[in-house]
């Protein structure tokens, strides 16, 4: 099946979608697509068939999201913890990934038509090299599309992502791009794999499990979490509508919490800048009683310098990440020519 399932909503589905869209709609929805193996056991079929049905359901769900004007979707496709499963199952999942990313490359025209940008988030170095190359080709082929975004978390856990963000910040300090005092919640936010995306408004987990399983722990602090008992391959348009309705019922409280956090973060950064500016004044012998206006100018100067350092660092970090995909793609081209 294609990455985006072709087809239109039924009349009653379109009517329901229009009613839902009269209220606040999530712009970014994340899915923990759980229940593929249980679905296979339920139907007495091979586990691999359950995973294949799970991918087909993702394609169908992406179509529903497009019809509901949800422009960004993030899915938990493969956890680093999944490498601990039986070898035959892991091998089967890797083969499924090969098939689907190869299929994606064959569907570039359709993805361009819908303006779909594919991002693959995770530690891709843990994957077989041929899959890394396929992913690089898919990412680069769609990177300029901007109508909607599909983030595929593959070889991912949130703890690994946060650890990597800290390492990226440490790399910036080692390179002299930023100072240790520049490291903040905002900076770590920008070092995450998801730095190009807003935090999810709504996170949905299927199969009845009530836990996040190390998925987007940082990003879902102020998201609406919905746990549904349906197995992922059996997921329906109506299950999605139910989850969106729960989001709408909680939207006001969630938005208020987000706004308060954003305000607190700005104040926290301002206070940090004041402390650093005061420390610099102290070191230069100007920490004695000083005109308030001069102190304010010192803070503004420090803030501008910090923002300049952070901008340079984030530009360098993005270039480093882009090179990873570009180098992989060059390897694919060289292999094809050989």
Would you give an account of this structure?
Pfam families: Prenyltransf. Helix 2 packs across helix 3, helix 6 (about 130-140) packs across helix 10 and helix 7 (about 160-175) packs across helix 8 (about 185-190). This protein has helices spanning about 10-20, 35-45, 45-65, 85-105, 110-115, 130-140, 160-175, 185-190, 235-285, 290-335; strands at about 30, 70-80, 115-120, 150-155, 200-205, 225. It is globular. With about 350 residues, it is α/β, with parallel strands linked by helices.
Count of discrete alpha- or pi-helical segments spanning 4 or more residues: 10
Helical residues, percent: 55-70%
- Anisotropy-based shape: globular
Distance between the termini: 31 Å
Based on CA atoms alone, the radius of gyration comes out at 23 Å
Q: Which strand order spans the largest sheet, edge to edge or round the barrel?
A: 3-4-2-1-5-6
The oligomeric status of these chains comes to single chain
Number of strands: 6
SS-derived structural category: alpha/beta
Beta-strand percentage?
Answer: 5-15%
**Mean pLDDT across all residues, rounded?**
93
- Unreliable parts: none
| Main sheet specs | 6 strands, parallel
Q: What letter string, H or E per element, gives the SSE order?
A: HEHHEHHEHEHHEEHH
Family: Belongs to the UPP synthase family.
EC number: 2.5.1.-
InterPro entries: UPP_synth-like, UPP_synth-like_CS, UPP_synth-like_sf
Enzyme class: transferase
